[in-house]
Design brief:
Blueprint: E1 2-7, H1 11-19, E2 25-31, E3 42-45, H2 47-56, H3 59-65, E4 67-68, E5 71-75, E6 81-86, E7 91-94, H4 95-105, E8 111-114, E9 126-129, H5 136-142, E10 149-160, E11 170-173, E12 177-184, E13 187-195, H6 205-215, H7 221-229, E14 235-242, E15 250-251, E16 254-256, H8 259-262, H9 271-288, H10 291-320, H11 326-350
InterPro entries: FAD-bd, FAD-dep_Monooxygenase_BioMet, FAD/NAD-bd_sf
Protein name: 2-polyprenyl-6-methoxyphenol hydroxylase-like FAD-dependent oxidoreductase
Organism: Paenarthrobacter histidinolovorans
Amino acid sequence: MKKVDIIGGGIAGLALAARLDPGAFDVTVYEQRPELPTVGTTLAMWPGAQNALAKIGILGPVRSRGSIIAGGALRSPQGEALLSMDGGGLVGISRPELLKLLNTAVPSSVTRLVGRVDRVQGGAWLTVGADGVNSVVRRSYWGERSAAKPTPFLAVRGVVPSTPEPGDVGEYWGRGEIFGLAPAVGGSNWYASYRSDLGPDKVEVPEALEITRRRYAGYPEAVKKVLAQASEETSLAQRIWTTPPLARYSRGNVVLIGDAAHAMTPNLGRGACEAIIDAVTLGDLLNEQPLDAALAAYGSKRVQRTQQLRIASALMGSVAMAQGMQPLRDGVLKRVGKRVSKASAQAGTSK
């Protein structure tokens, strides 16, 4: 039995533990939280992540407990639709529900140890850093230059019981701020992001909610209604952090997955998806190949792809959160939206 230590029991860590062959690996998952979180917003599962969830064996439950994301629109702060977006088969599921399902897929042979890991001991056949954006594993083996950096932006998000009207769904892009609204199982998922001096470490949710309500007071009624319903118990507030670029995700017998390898801004909605794909890709390779070959193949498959997404997400965030040139930006989006609508109409006529 080959000993594998997985530092971090979040989405990436649980997905890897669920995919590794229990007949070949002695797996230990280290997680600082004694229990799974009960509060969290909806995550969009793109097709690649759905394929990975199918390999783990939980795609059916994810679809049954989640919801189909039909689409929405990029909107102005006044609610005008600038560019319509098709959901493209995306499935939305809450983070707590996804963690529950991943947790049930982990074999009973996996050892669980609760407690914060501040220092990586080593000694295992393989040590996996699945410990998020502020990864201890990454800093220990890639050095302090790899430490996460806080962005100027705060993320405030939550769920409320009311369901949004289809004409209100989407992202509202303002001046240096965005607000997102989407249907979720049993209500609505919402998120806001803007420049803030709160944090960068612990952010008090009541204070962040009050600032958010004031900041978006001029937005449409749908946005104000959601923020009026938002509560401390069903909301989260945190600084957005990102990791610097990495040219490789493994060193010796240590490897990074998920946010520990490529934490990105949330503008593309790909962070959780890529963490799941990382875990399943690595698990499959370890199940089939010697360690050196598996880690080399993992790097070939995942480094360039995820670093490109990290850059693309940052660029999207720069456009969405721009503090100037809003009329030009919104005008371009509107023109693109008209061309997309015209192309779709012509495609429908030709069928």
